[in-house]
């Protein structure tokens, strides 16, 4: 810097040149000193260059050969690389397919099960698919589609199983009468078996209760798996003959749709929904079943079909109660039964009141007893039904009374009111066998002879016995004590005697144109019927085994009935006589102004006395037991005579005191006196 800044630039350059020359001389000296070595090195380098060129050529040649040889290897290695890549891909694919194929197989199996309506297995398959298989392959798109479809499939299974249940409910609604009919046949067979066992105690060890008999048929149905693939419905069963063994009522029903649907809804967590639906639908069906047809009272088949449907309904519910856990419970069954009991009893009260045929009422009673026994065999309380049967018993008695009223009328109307003639011993014994009559005097008499009574006595007596038998028939199987049966029969028989028979007798006695002979015969007949009352008492005692001395035993009022009828007949005799006297008196034609009397009594009075004489002759010629009938007829004749005389004297006095008679002559009074003397004579 000082050089450039000062004036000594040229001088500096000279000094620098001189310094360069000195260094060049030193370099030259040094080079001269090492020159030989340099030359040797160059010479060596030249030699090396030649060798290097050879080496280069060899390397180039070797490289060329190597490149030529390596091309094939590279191609093979590239192919190997591709194969190894494919192998890895195939292996990975196999691994993935190994995971996916079970999923697809399960899904295919699921669709097949859905198609063949095997819904419960389909639901199990769906669970395995969802919880076991799909999580392993969840990243695949087809699996996501499956996952999205699972709720839809569940809903489809629910809907289809519910559809099967609806078909089942509809089917058992239609076939409940067939189920009930079979159950009632079972009960009838069991009752027959019980009767046989009670008659032959030796074989009672083999006796089964109703519940055991029904349980045997339940076992088969209980074993029905929910996996069952049968459609809902009632199995076809042909009608069996009475002698053949009746299949179990539950054997007629395939319950698998209920079990399947219950399991499906339980698995899906909707059991409560299913239970509520089932109970609601069955309640509706119960109301339909309990609605009686309007013409049910017309035939026994109407009642039988009504009972069959009710029994069928409760047989199904009882089976569901015992073969499912909680689908229905005892409280629900009891509630339905209470409703059914009240509606059934109300319907029976209404419809039975229309029935006027006692045989139909009796058949209805037997049907109700069988209905009650059947349901009692399944554990349902039926006391109210038996209480209602006691009400129907009153109605039965009324229908019997109406029927026997017609029977008595026919007997009384067709009777000839004359003593029964017998021509031989056979006829005599036949009548004595029909009516309790003993008369030593009559037995001694030779044939032909006559019973004192007419035909209506044995006929009425036998019809009273038939009535008692009819009452007894109703009391069978009602679980009544012998005292209650005896009381029921006696009360009904009293109504028959005091009301029905009494009215019929009164109508005969009061009817127009009844003859005096008929009235006298009625008096005789009622006397014999009155005596037969003690035999009726014995008859009732024999069939009920309740002694008349037992406390609260009702007495028969037949004696009173026949006494009243006899008194009415006597009164009718007196009335008829007086009416006849009045008819004769109407013929009286006195000439109150006659100057001279006639030579004899008036013609009308002679005819009247002749009539009375022939009339009282009837009383003196009564057949049969002389002691009884002469006393009885004598009393009636005396009373009739007193009544006739009193009425005649009063009427004659009235003739004299009539307001139309303004004056009397002595001749007229003398004629009247002749008539009075004729009466006295």
UniProtKB/TrEMBL annotation:
<dbReference type="GO" id="GO:0005886">
    <property type="term" value="C:plasma membrane"/>
</dbReference>
<dbReference type="InterPro" id="IPR046361">
    <property type="entry name" value="EXOC6/Sec15_C"/>
</dbReference>
<dbReference type="InterPro" id="IPR042044">
    <property type="entry name" value="EXOC6PINT-1/Sec15/Tip20_C_dom2"/>
</dbReference>
<dbReference type="GO" id="GO:0000145">
    <property type="term" value="C:exocyst"/>
</dbReference>
<feature type="domain" description="Exocyst complex subunit EXOC6/Sec15 C-terminal">
    <location>
        <begin position="384"/>
        <end position="680"/>
    </location>
</feature>
<keyword id="KW-0268">Exocytosis</keyword>
<feature type="region of interest" description="Disordered">
    <location>
        <begin position="199"/>
        <end position="233"/>
    </location>
</feature>
<feature type="compositionally biased region" description="Polar residues">
    <location>
        <begin position="222"/>
        <end position="231"/>
    </location>
</feature>
<dbReference type="GO" id="GO:0006893">
    <property type="term" value="P:Golgi to plasma membrane transport"/>
</dbReference>
<keyword id="KW-0175">Coiled coil</keyword>
<feature type="coiled-coil region">
    <location>
        <begin position="13"/>
        <end position="83"/>
    </location>
</feature>
<dbReference type="InterPro" id="IPR042045">
    <property type="entry name" value="EXOC6/Sec15_C_dom1"/>
</dbReference>
<dbReference type="InterPro" id="IPR048359">
    <property type="entry name" value="EXOC6_Sec15_N"/>
</dbReference>
<dbReference type="GO" id="GO:0090522">
    <property type="term" value="P:vesicle tethering involved in exocytosis"/>
</dbReference>
<dbReference type="Pfam" id="PF20651">
    <property type="entry name" value="EXOC6_Sec15_N"/>
</dbReference>
<dbReference type="GO" id="GO:0006886">
    <property type="term" value="P:intracellular protein transport"/>
</dbReference>
<protein>
    <submittedName>
        <fullName>Exocyst complex component 6B</fullName>
    </submittedName>
</protein>
<dbReference type="InterPro" id="IPR007225">
    <property type="entry name" value="EXOC6/Sec15"/>
</dbReference>
<comment type="similarity">
    <text>Belongs to the SEC15 family.</text>
</comment>
<keyword id="KW-0813">Transport</keyword>
<dbReference type="Pfam" id="PF04091">
    <property type="entry name" value="Sec15_C"/>
</dbReference>
<feature type="domain" description="Exocyst complex component EXOC6/Sec15 N-terminal">
    <location>
        <begin position="15"/>
        <end position="184"/>
    </location>
</feature>
């Amino acid at each position: 810097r000082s050089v450039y800044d000062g004036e000594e630039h040229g001088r500096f350059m000279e000094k620098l040149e001189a310094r360069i020359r000195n260094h060049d001389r030193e370099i030259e000296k040094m080079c001269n000193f090492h020159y030989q070595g340099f030359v040797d090195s160059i010479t060596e380098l030249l030699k090396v260059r030649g060798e290097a060129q050879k080496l280069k050529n060899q390397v180039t040649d070797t490289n060329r050969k190597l490149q030529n040889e390596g091309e094939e290897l590279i191609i093979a290695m590239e192919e190997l690389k591709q194969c190894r890549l494919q192998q890895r891909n195939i292996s990975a694919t196999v691994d993935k397919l190994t995971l996916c194929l079970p999923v697809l197989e399960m899904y295919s199996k699921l669709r097949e099960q859905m198609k063949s309506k095997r819904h419960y297995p389909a639901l199990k398959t769906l669970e395995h698919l969802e919880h076991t298989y799909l999580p392993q392959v969840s990243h695949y798109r087809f699996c996501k589609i499956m996952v999205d479809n699972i709720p839809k499939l569940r809903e489809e299974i629910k809907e289809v199983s519910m559809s099967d249940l609806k078909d089942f409910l509809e089917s058992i609604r239609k076939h409940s009468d067939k189920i009930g009919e079979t159950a009632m046949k079972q009960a009838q067979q069991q009752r027959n078996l019980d009767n046989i066992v009670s008659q032959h105690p030796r074989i009672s060890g083999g006796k089964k209760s109703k519940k055991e008999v029904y349980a045997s048929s339940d076992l088969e149905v209980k074993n029905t798996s929910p996996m069952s693939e049968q459609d809902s419905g009632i199995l076809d069963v042909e009608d069996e003959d009475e002698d053949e063994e009746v299949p179990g009522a539950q054997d007629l029903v395939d319950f698998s749709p209920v079990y399947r649907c219950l399991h499906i809804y339980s698995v899906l967590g909707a059991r409560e929904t299913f239970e509520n639906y089932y109970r609601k639908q069955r309640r509706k069906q119960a109301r339909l079943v309990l609605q009686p047809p309007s013409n049910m009272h017309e035939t026994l088949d109407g009642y039988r079909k009504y009972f069959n449907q009710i029994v069928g309904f409760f047989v199904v519910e009882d089976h569901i109660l015992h073969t499912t856990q909680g689908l229905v419970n005892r409280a629900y069954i009891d509630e339905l039964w209470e409703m059914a009991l009240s509606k059934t009893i109300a319907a029976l009260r209404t419809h039975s009141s229309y029935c006027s045929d006692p045989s139909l009422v009796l058949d209805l009673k037997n049907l109700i007893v069988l209905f009650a026994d059947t349901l009692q065999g399944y554990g349902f309380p039926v006391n109210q039904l038996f209480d209602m049967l006691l009400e129907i018993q009153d109605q039965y008695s009324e229908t019997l009374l109406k029927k026997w009223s017609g029977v008595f009328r026919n007997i009384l109307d067709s009777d000839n009111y004359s003593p029964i003639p017998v021509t031989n011993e056979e006829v005599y014994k036949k009548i004595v066998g029909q009516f309790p009559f003993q008369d030593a005097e009559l037995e001694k008499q030779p044939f032909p002879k006559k019973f004192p009574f007419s035909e209506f006595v044995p006929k009425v007596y036998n019809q009273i016995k038939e009535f008692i038998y009819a009452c007894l028939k109703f009391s069978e199987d009602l679980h009544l004590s012998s005292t209650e049966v005896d009381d029921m029969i006696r009360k009904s028989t009293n109504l028959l005697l005091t009301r029905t028979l009494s009215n019929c007798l009164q109508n005969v006695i009061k009817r127009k144109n009844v003859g005096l002979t008929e009235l006298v015969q009625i008096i005789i007949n009622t006397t014999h019927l009155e005596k037969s009352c003690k035999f009726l008492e014995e008859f009732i005692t024999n069939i009920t085994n309740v002694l008349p001395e037992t406390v609260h035993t009702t007495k028969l009022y037949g004696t009173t009935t026949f006494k009243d009828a006899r008194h009415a007949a006597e009164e009718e005799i007196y009335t008829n006589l007086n009416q006849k006297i009045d008819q004769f008196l109407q013929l009286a034609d006195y000439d109150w102004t006659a100057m001279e009397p006639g030579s004899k009594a008036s013609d009308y009075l002679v005819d009247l006395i002749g009539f009375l004489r022939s009339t009282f002759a009837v009383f003196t010629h009564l057949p049969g037991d002389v002691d009884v009938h002469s006393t009885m007829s004598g009393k009636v004749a005396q009373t009739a005579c007193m009544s006739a005389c009193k009425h005649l004297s009063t009427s004659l006095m009235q003739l004299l005191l009539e307001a139309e008679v303004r004056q009397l002559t002595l001749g007229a009074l003398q004629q009247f006196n002749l008539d009075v003397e004729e009466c006295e004579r």
